[in-house]
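Holo model, magnesium ion. Inputs:
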Amino acid sequence: MDVTLSAIKADIGGWVGHSVTHPETLEKANELMAEAKDEGTVLDYRALNCGDDLQLIMTHPHGDNSEVIHGLAWDVFSSCTAVAKRLKLHGAGQDLLSEGFSGNVKGLGPGLAEMTVSERTAESVIVFMADKTASGAWNLPLYRMFADPFNTPGLVIAPSLHGGFSFEVHDVLEGKKIVLNAPEETYDMLIYLGSSGRYAVKNVYHRDTGYIDASASTQKLSMLAGRYVGKDDPVLIVRCQGSYPAVGEVLEAFSNVNIVEGWMRGSHNGPLLPVGFSSAKCTRFDGPPRCIAAGFQLAEGMLIGPLDMFDDVAFDPARERALQVADILRSMGPFEPHRLPLDEMEYTTMPEVSKRMESRFEPIVGD
Ligand code: F6R
Ligand code: MG
Ligand code: MG
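Output:
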């Protein structure tokens, strides 16, 4: 059976400040999605939150980029924005950059990851959701999952993975893309993946079969809006087991510190904390950036789950190391590399401040 898995998310208002999504907005989302399931628009759904982002995970038969599904998500976000406005939540409707819906959520603000798959006998998938960080935050874990044998031994010892994976990488500033093959092009690929502010992995494919294995949201909110409106807070879907990395190989990619951009005012580097659902609450310095992992088995399009994958003491050391890095970075205050480098500050609120100083600069003469 062919089924499309869509993860569409938006920050439609935070409680308190930018900490989390309010339970009443989640209730509204669940109510509307239940109606959509009754009407047969979706096969199944889950409405979750990571920090202040409302996450709609949906299965349906409509394929990628379906106007029906994207329109449904837009309507749910709009109705939840009305709840957010009534409760006077912070930044109500923040990510809905357009007045109305026009065929597809791409370019309108919400983040989107989706894939259409032929459901296997056992279809294990993990949906990763992050808050207070940018598209590109998944580059390092995706590299580890699909190209690093020290993370994924299956690349070496499992015949079904040995042929490698290809990475579709997007230049999010110039709107260009390139496909690079692992393992033979990994050195070239790392030039781009290492610059995660500009290049983001969109999709990963299994090279022997050409099947899609991972898909991430890569939209850049600041580019869409032409100003800083909040971070992208990306989502990622990964299929696991069989011809793909095992669940544990996929999760292992989060066992080391990954320093990402985002955090306070979208202007700071900080560690991406892998946390259980109950800790998906951004408080300290509006963060630190964090991500949750919702595991599912698909059964004829039904979402069997979620299983809270990072709710495991085995990730405690990873969290502790990340929090030590958070302390070290915080001690640097407004200095790089805690604060983002100047060229990336262009996409924050800082240019407004530096504009005031422009006329006071004079040429250095005689030095
Ligand atoms: C980061 C984020 C927050 C806000 C900060 C100021 O992605 O959302 O750190 O940038 O709380 O928020 P405003 O400008 O809404 O008062
Ligand atoms: Mg917010
Ligand atoms: Mg957010």
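Residues 17-18, 91, 132, 230-231, 262, 264-266, 286 surround fructose -6-phosphate (ligand 1) (CB under 6 Å). The first strand starts at residue 2 and ends at 10.
Archived with the compound record.
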